[in-house]
Specification:
The protein is an alpha/beta fold. Helices cover 30% and strands 19% of the residues. It has eleven helices and nine strands. It has helices at residues 9-12, 25-37, 105-110, 154-170, 187-198, 215-220, 229-238, 245-252, 257-260, 281-288, 311-319; strands at residues 44-47, 55-63, 69-77, 85-91, 113-117, 175-185, 204-208, 267-273, 295-300. Helix 4 (154-170) crosses helix 5 (187-198). The protein is globular and about 60 Å long. 48% of the residues are buried. The model has no long low-confidence stretch (mean pLDDT 96).
């Protein structure tokens, strides 16, 4: 069983990634977390227009780094069986939003308090106010890539938003902070790993085919297209002869989730589709192979970057022990 275009499966299980890790990576993220924790998140929770009988639906907003207001749908069981229950933070795919209220109801009905975040500056209600030097055209991976200060990389802020949302959920009266999980696919999968790395109290994490990992490998495979096409745009516009390629990929290393993966303490259940030409399997294994906590894989040999038949049910079953 091997993918048609990537490494053989046995090589995927040992692959360690190509994108370089900046020498100050750990201090960069430690300082970022210190900055985030010092913020007053100015949490606002108001009743949502959408309501249903057994779940309290609210619009949640908080202030992230740089002052942007970040939005999440919040769903809380109306009559919990126990005083406190589990929590769940959910993250969406690139350019999208937190989805319909109804797609989160199954977890809320089961007893989870759910917070589904809109990534700043994408298809939902979250703001992105931060100034940046350099191009703002085409995508979020490259936003801030030419800024003199790597703290202005947009995904640094989005990664911190995930951890801040998890902290907010953990502090809610109806949530046991030792029983909070994270889920998402594609960009949401990458953000699930980032959240679990930056908020180590996350108990379970279920990423599907994570985006935002091993950028150099994607480039070398000539797959900087679709979700990664902004890398091609950046080189064509700002480094057409690749004189700065080593510098650029090292800068991208700050927001490469494979380098955050060793921080994860959650148990991880990850899905990989071996025909995925959007987020190549090797890039996903680069992150998975660096996770040091308990972990398991669901491998889909004949699927690409698409709905994985039956997998949402497997994720639901993976998270159910948090209800005990």
């Amino acid at each position: 069983m091997r993918p048609a275009f990537d490494l053989p499966l046995d090589a995927l299980h040992t692959y360690q990634g190509r994108n370089p890790k900046p020498s100050d990576f750990d201090s960069y993220w430690d300082k970022s977390l210190t900055e985030m924790r010092a913020l007053d998140p100015e949490i606002e929770i108001r009743p949502a227009t959408f309501q249903c009988p057994n779940v309290i639906c609210s619009d949640l907003r908080f202030t992230g780094v740089d002052g942007s207001r970040v939005y999440a749908k919040l769903l809380e069981p109306r009559s919990p069986v126990r005083p406190v229950g589990p929590g769940l933070v959910a993250f969406h795919g690139y350019s999208g939003d937190s989805g319909n209220w109804t797609q989160h109801l199954a977890y809320a009905a089961a007893g989870f308090t759910v917070a589904a975040m809109d990534c700043r500056g994408q298809g939902g209600k979250s703001q992105e106010l931060g100034p940046v030097h350099g191009t703002t055209l085409r995508g979020h991976i490259i936003r801030g890539l030419d800024d003199p200060d790597p703290r202005n990389l947009l995904y640094r802020k989005i990664f911190l938003d995930t951890a801040q949302l998890a902290r907010i959920v953990m502090d809610l009266d109806g949530v046991d902070n030792a029983r909070v999980a994270a889920i998402g696919g594609s960009q949401g999968g990458g953000l699930t790993l980032a959240c679990a790395a930056l908020e180590p109290r996350i108990a379970l994490a279920a990423p599907n085919f994570p985006f935002l990992t091993d950028y150099q490998r994607t480039w070398e495979m000539d797959l900087a297209k679709a979700a990664y096409d902004e890398l091609t745009y950046f080189f064509r516009s700002f480094d057409p002869t690749h004189q700065r390629a080593a510098e650029i990929f090292e800068r991208l290393g700050y927001i490469d989730v494979q380098h955050l993966a060793p921080r994860i303490r959650a148990e991880v259940f990850m899905a990989v589709a071996l025909q995925d030409t959007v987020c190549p399997p090797s890039t996903q294994f680069a992150a998975y192979n660096k996770i040091q906590s308990a972990k398991s894989l669901a491998i889909y040999p004949d699927f690409g970057h698409e709905n994985l038949k039956g997998h949402d049910d497997k994720v639901f079953q993976f998270l159910l022990p948090l209800l005990d």
